[in-house]
Specification:
Blueprint: H1 16-26, H2 34-49, E1 53-55, H3 59-64, E2 70-72
Parallel strand pairs: 1-2
Helix pairs in contact: 1-2
Length: 74
């Protein structure tokens, strides 16, 4: 397991510029619920940075991007 450093947390904004990329990421989910938007934000950050995601619930993320690198939490 990798250690999370100071800059290990990323937040993103849904802006006019990023909205089309979010829409493409959300398309497989078929939903724009708050949970789906959160998952899309996580997927976008992981994809753009090539980082793994530390999570205990990988299923919503894998629904959007099956190849996402997951670091499982108990």
């Amino acid at each position: 397991m990798r250690r999370i450093g100071r800059n290990g947390c990323v937040t993103g904004e849904l802006t006019r510029t990023s909205a089309s990329a979010f829409a493409e990421t959300l398309r497989p989910a078929g939903s724009s619920s708050p949970a789906a938007l959160t998952a899309a934000s996580v997927v976008q950050a992981a994809r753009s940075r090539g980082w793994p995601v530390l999570t205990a619930e990988p299923y919503p993320l894998r629904a959007l991007w099956p190849e996402i690198d997951i670091e499982p939490m108990p």
